Amino acid sequence: MSEVVIYLIPVIALSQMKGKILLLIVTLSFFKLNAFAQTYQTTLGKGTDTRLEVYEYYHHTGEEKWLKLFTINNSNWSYGGVSGRVYFVDYQGVGGSYVDFAFPQTINSWQKPTLFINGNSCTKLKWYITSNDVGSYTVYVKTPTFHLGLSFLYRGSSYVPHFAEEGVIPTTFVWSSENDPESLAFFRSDGNWGLGTTNPTHKLTVNGQIRAREIKVENDNWPDYVFEKQYQPMTLNNLAAYISKNGHLPEIPSATEVKKEGVNLSALNAKMLQKIEELTLYIIDQQKEIESLKRQNEKIPAMEKDIAALKKASK
Predict the structure, then answer these.
(1) What is the pTM for the complete model shown?
(2) Which DSSP symbol is given to 164?
(3) What does the pLDDT look like over 232-244, one tens digit per residue?
(4) Which domain does 239 fall in, by range?
(5) Which site in 28, 31, 38, 216 is 20 to 30 Å from 17, CA atoms measured?
(6) How far apart are CA 165 and CA 49, in angstroms?
(7) How many domains is the chain built from?
(8) Distances (CA, A) of 284 to 114, 147, 288, 290, 291
(9) Is position 310 within any domain?
């Protein structure tokens, strides 16, 4: 619980009233808010393991704190666990945010904890899980330093709440928010979304694969200009020299660039279409040359006949 420390400080007034020294006693109260306080609990159903609780925590020191939240009993019933929300206030300018969390009854390859982070400050909270020998696991949070306030609202089934500062720091983890980013979703205050990352550099940053039925990409510079009369594609000789020197097509990023920076799908699709259209022009020109050669070849039998006649006449 929060501890209240009362200080009594005597102050002598600089003036006198009716020959008497006015003595003022000033009472100052300082709150040492660095412990959990349970503020609310209600039972939602039969038994005591399905309850809704709220815990408050305040931290005003320059140290990181480890908080032991709860232990979930692994009974092989995969639809239990603990879920809820923690509201976070950082008093150093980052502001307020919150995390929706869900910890399943059993952790395995397809069933893991999930954290939905809203707001920049909550990325400072680090989440950890340790495995216990008795077939359960315990959830911890490591806080940042200095001034912060946390409000935990949660409910669960088949678990033991702790909600206390932890003096014995765990060292071995079966899951953490740092090493298992696939459990994270992050909405940053600039409007960027991150899936599996707390550093979304675009409106949607995904650390992993995306599967969709359809994706629509807009582009204002579609390369139909290739078929305009004034457009002149690179000659095949120059193209061959460029490929020999650079190892990739002109205006197409190299493998090294793609590995480092990724690709812009809209721009890349446009460039690929440009190359297809240029290839079409090459094919059309080559077909014209082929047709010209065919017409010349069709004249060869008559020419050979005339040559034979001339040879015969000259004998």
Answers:
(1) 0.68
(2) E
(3) 999 999 999 999 9
(4) 224-300
(5) 28
(6) 22
(7) 3
(8) 57, 72, 6, 10, 11
(9) no
